[in-house]
């Protein structure tokens, strides 16, 4: 019970700090196609695509990656979902041209922590393609 309450308080505190979402400094990363939402499935769940190769090759620090992830996902929550009807999403990780030794574990961890912390229970399915 305490953990749930603390999570709600932390989420509320962050939302007060970051809303409206500030996209300053994120424009190039948004245009790059690193992470984006593309259409929806037959149940109207938004589909998030993460290009892992761009995550490997792109110069982006952890704080900016965290801000980018939060901004994109929060936009999907605000504009692509309806409370009580559409509350989760698909994630597609595109591993094209990424070798086993190139896997950006630390960067993926930054993104996963951000989503787990503030968007609990929203993931419907995760697909890995071009593995």
Could you give the order of the helices and strands?
A: HHEEHHEHE
Structural class by sheet pairing and helices: alpha/beta
Would you give the CATH topology? Phosphatidylinositol Transfer Protein Sec14p
Low-confidence stretches: none
Strand content: 15-25%
Most strands sheet: 4 strands, mixed
Rg of Cα set: 15 Å
Helix content: 40-55%
Shape from CA axes?
Answer: globular
Number of domains: 1
- CATH-defined architecture: 3-Layer(aba) Sandwich
Number of helices: 5
- State the end-to-end CA separation: 40 Å
CATH structural class: Alpha Beta
Pfam families: CRAL_TRIO
InterPro entries: CRAL-TRIO_dom, CRAL-TRIO_dom_sf
Protein name: CRAL-TRIO domain-containing protein
Keywords:
globular, 47% helix, 131 residues, 4 strands, alpha/beta, single chain, 4-stranded mixed β-sheet, 19% strand, Phosphatidylinositol Transfer Protein Sec14p
Question: What does this protein structure show overall?
Answer:
Residues 31-131 form the CRAL-TRIO domain. InterPro entries: CRAL-TRIO_dom, CRAL-TRIO_dom_sf. This is CRAL-TRIO domain-containing protein. It comes from Euplotes harpa. The structure is a single chain. This protein has 5 helices and 4 strands. The radius of gyration is 15 Å and the shape is globular. It has a 4-stranded mixed sheet. Helix 4 packs across helix 5. Helix content is 47%, strand content 19%. The termini are far apart. With 131 residues, it is an alpha/beta fold. It has one domain (2-129): CRAL-TRIO lipid binding domain (Phosphatidylinositol Transfer Protein Sec14p).
